[in-house]
Amino acid sequence: MRGTRDESGPGRDSLVMRRDVITPAAAGTVLLAIGVTAVADWVNWARAGQWLRSHAGWVVFFGLAVGLLITAAIRGARRPRRGVETPAPPLSWWVVVAAAGVVAAVAWGATAWLLGEANQAKDPAAARVEAIKTGLSIGAGTGGVFALLLAVRRQWHQELTAAATNLDAAEKRVTELYTKAADQLGSDKAPVRLAGLYALERVAQNNPDQRQTIVNVLCAYLRMPYTPRGNKPADDADQDVIKNYIERTQEREVRLTAQRLLTEHLSPGDGGVTAPVATFWADISLDLTYATLITFSLANCVVETAVFRLATFNGSADFWSATFNAMAGFQSATFNAMAGFQSATFNGSAGFRSATFNAMAGFRSATFNAMADFQSATFKQAVPREIERFTSPASQGGDVDGLDASENSTTGS
């Protein structure tokens, strides 16, 4: 599942009249009329040919008029482009006038022709009466064709209006769900905040065009100030202290849930981005600037831009086999436990300037396909030997200066 959405609206294509339906219908009507005429065996085709040759100009004129009217009807009922609202155009006055003129001309031409044929009959008077009836019937049938086209146009407009109404209702429903879930995140009760997170996840899963917005909400929640819960107070501690510890513990669970949702939906699964699982959200960017993250993991995840500037990682930071398709910024970030970037792929710039690693950091088999910046990065235990490939000799357990890699590089032991 890619992070795109069909913008045509639910059921829109199935409701719009298509040209490949109208055109065969019109052609079938003409062929049916010809077939009925031939079976009736009341036309002298030799004389009909002579009449057509003698009235060739008028025949061409009315043929063009009928063709233009049918073309106008087809264009009016054609399928609109996806994602574009096509309002129903008003019926032009010239179409009505032209249709009436064509009907009258067809009735007059058919009657005149048949009256000429009637004069050759054995009983001219009776034949003329039948000719007039038949000519008027042909005129009525021509009018019926245009009435059918108008009925098709009206039905198409009604179906298009119904589809637009359904689309508006669906979008309104999504907006209501999103607003309610966002309000729940502001609750002072942890269970309500958890319910809000899962409601947002459900909205994003069912509406791909809302996914980046909802990820932005989750990131904004994680960027809000957070104080770790600290050690568990003694049983005889002040009640306010115990209450504060419980609230922070509950908030910790909410934040862990938000992190887990990001991890779950940014992982394409074993099939990778070419055959991702249904829960994968593609083309997502993260902004976790100043965020306090707890045992954070993007292992095996695929993201576009990822910003972790000035973020604090409490607990392990797991980026094993993560793929960053655009910029990855960890400038001035603090890693208080193990940081694992093994087998990670950086397709954009990788910024670790002034980052602080207070525990082990691993970059084995990491791939940097653009600039990698480790200037002023601090490794409190040891500079990973994989990083030393980017620079001149650096001190172990100290600052690392001037680490820039502007060409493709793959680190490994």
What does this structure look like?
The chain has helices spanning 12-15, 19-40, 45-54, 56-76, 93-118, 124-185, 190-206, 211-223, 239-265; strands spanning 286-287, 292-297, 302-303, 306-307, 312-318, 323-324, 328-329, 334-335, 339-340, 345-346, 350-351, 356-357, 361-362, 367-368, 372-373, 377-379, 399-400, 404-405, 409-410. The protein has 413 residues and is α/β, with parallel strands linked by helices. Among the domains are: 12-171, no CATH class; 285-410, no CATH class. The strands form three sheets. Strands 2, 5, 8, 9, 12, 13, 16 and 17 form an eight-stranded mixed beta sheet that branches. It has a six-stranded mixed beta sheet with strand order 1-4-7-11-15-18. Helix 4 (56-76) runs antiparallel to helix 5 (93-118), helix 5 (93-118) packs antiparallel against helix 6 and helix 8 packs antiparallel against helix 9. Mean pLDDT is 77; it is low at 1-21, 79-85 and 391-410.
Give the helix level as a range of percent: 40-55%
Shape: elongated
User: Counting H and I runs of at least 4 residues, what is the number of helices?
Assistant: 9
Report the major sheet: 8 strands, mixed
Task: Compute the separation of the termini in Å.
Answer: 36 Å
Q: Compute the average pLDDT.
A: 77
Radius of gyration, rounded? 37 Å
Q: What is the ordering of alpha helices and beta strands?
A: HHHHHHHHHEEEEEEEEEEEEEEEEEEE
User: Which class do the helix and strand fractions yield?
Assistant: alpha/beta
